[in-house]
Amino acid sequence: MPFILKKYEAIKEKKLSLFLLQNLKIDHKLAQRIASKGRIFDENMNTIAPNDTIPTDYIYMAVFEGVSRGLKPLLEFEDFAIFDKPTHLMVHPISKSTPYSLLDEIRFHFGEDANLIHRIDAETSGLIIVGKNKKSEIELKEMFQEKKYHKSYLAIVEGHIKEEMEINKGLDREGLAIGVRMKICDDGKESLTVIKPISYNKEKDLTLIEALPLTGRQHQIRVHLYSENHRILGDPIYGIDDENAENYLNKTLSDEDRFDITKSHRLWLHANYLEFTYKDVTYKVFSKNLDIFNEFYN
């Protein structure tokens, strides 16, 4: 389990935020974040807010300790690293009961100060940048926010795409009881994706494409391709009925049903290339985990 309870001898009646800062030497912002998320408890397992005084002689803190399942970074530099994430792996825990995520590996390899710079969906495989310290995290996140990078994906889609095309359609959230699904919307957020066909498998009626998201909206590539009648192979949210989409998001869709409905055990979308400049050095990184090609041609 990524979250464990740690017991600390406390100073009774001292303000919690001061105790964390002065006695446990926890950075003020980190201490505020941990406490405000309800992860600090007294001996009776009652949560303690940052401005509360400590009511007991001991406190308990739910802390994230990364565990490894053998995933190692693809590349490592002084300030950052790059992972080649497999499919079906969440990048971040969604609750205290999440058994394993990419953040486990990040903290296992690089410690508490390491963090994700950007995210991709659990089912999307491929490249993820990780800041190894707070300073590099801030600088690299600013780079992403300012769109000072180039990113491209590989995908296997249904049907034959013969020529390069631009998909320029606004996106907005679609209401579901559980989870998130996006929809094409005239007054939605501006979204632009360039699609380049690479190869066509006539027998399977599938096209291997490169997708370049020139904007970074959630599920952008998936929704744009589906809107052009080229659903990504294995997509368990787009191109299927609402009931099964919600069953998938609610984790009640069996692997067998998912395969029958989507024609695959995974979403065939892969973050294949990243290019960015950090401290005046330009990095151009290709994924080495290209089993996507084997599945396409076999």
CATH fold-level assignment of the largest domain: Pseudouridine synthase
Task: Report the principal-axis shape.
Answer: elongated
Give the count of structural domains: 3
Number of strands: 15
N-to-C order of helices and strands: EHHEEEEHEEHEEEEEEHHHEEH
CATH superfamily of the largest domain: Pseudouridine synthase
Helix content: 10-25%
CATH architecture of the largest domain: 2-Layer Sandwich
Characterization of the model:
By secondary structure, the protein is of the alpha+beta class. It folds into three domains: 3-64, Structural Genomics Hypothetical 15.5 Kd Protein In mrcA-pckA Intergenic Region, Chain A (Roll), CATH 3.10.290; 66-146, Pseudouridine synthase (2-Layer Sandwich), CATH 3.30.2350; 152-270, 2-Layer Sandwich (Pseudouridine synthase), CATH 3.30.2350. The protein has helices spanning 16-23, 28-36, 102-110, 134-145, 220-227, 242-249, 255-262, 291-297, and strands spanning 3-9, 40-41, 58-64, 75-76, 80-85, 115-116, 125-131, 149-158, 165-168, 171-174, 181-184, 192-201, 206-213, 269-278, 281-286. Strands 4, 5, 6, 7, 8, 9, 12, 13, 14 and 15 form a ten-stranded mixed sheet that branches. It starts with a strand and ends with a helix.
